[in-house]
Amino acid sequence: MADETGTGEAACGICGGGTLEEMLDYRSLQRVTSDCRSWPAGGRLGVCRVCGAVQKPADDAFLADIDAIYRSYTIYHQAAGAEQAVFEQSSGLPASRSVKLLDTFRRYAGLNATGRMLDVGCGNGATIRAFGQVAPGWTKVGTEFDDKYRAEVESIPVTEPLHVGPVGEVAGTFDVITMIHVLEHIVDPVAVLATLRGKLTPGGLLLIEVPHHPANPFELLIADHRSHFTADSLSRALTAAGYEIVSVADNWIPKELSVVARPATAQRPAAPEGEPVAARDRIAGSIAWLRRTADRLRELADTGSVGLFGTSIAGTWLAAEAGDRIGFFVDEDPNRLGRSYLGRPVLSPATVAAGSRVFVGLPPAVAAGICGRLTTPGVAYLAPPA
Hints:
The protein is α/β, with parallel strands linked by helices. Helices cover about 25% and strands about 25% of the residues.
């Protein structure tokens, strides 16, 4: 799919029929990579004038950024490669994101005892490993653009050799294909989805997991994400690629969309018109909220030492915004505790000293739950602006 139209404007990578209206305020925001490193400002973000999909123009600058990011990509470096945990909001108990997702999918889809699955963009094998736990009788295959994690992936029981290269060249067909935090990176998502459709057996299912930016504005700051999906834009991309939607859920994993689809058996009706004005207003509101949140943290840091809750995307971006005025990080992920992040110690809530202030720079609903749950005597957990 072309990235530029005859008018020089960036083309929509979802509907193919619109051009992107750039959100100019975005250019001045510092960014962060999906493997949690600071990245300079200067990115572009647009909203399709026809369907309302939110994307970065796939121009030369974006392609250069993703090339530089992926050449030095280090997955989950905050925890020596251990997958980021997800947390039950009321108790704060951690769980493996992949196991939670795939256990929900297994119960929803009614998987057979045996089958063959493909994980596209398998990284160091977290999804494949989790799939083996919830469906031990299945054969598993992973694909990646390089062989950096070949040994880790191929050490997982009942896993075929890692495929390195285009996904269309993977041999055979599959009963389940998973794309966990992959589709948002792909320059031409509809074309890749169409290729994968031909890799599914009759009755096979595609499971996609992507960030949900309306629930998490920090996701817009990720420099190497081409698409920033909503349920509507992801459904539109799947329909254009020849799928029918089985399920769209925003409650399987917090702040994420979980979508199950299968190849369409009949011609699907054209997708209804999108809502570009509502999408532009939502993105403008998110950018304004991100600025207010960074301003609030700087105000706190100007009056004394402050800690940051979280060592992922939000924490990385906010630490860059506040500079050397951040004294420490707080996290509940056991794989990250006792380490240092960005040169500061990572503490558990139980070890934060009395008299400390901790800024919970997360989406307001999530931050409110954390601030209400963490009531350590003498420690102030501070929520961002609404």
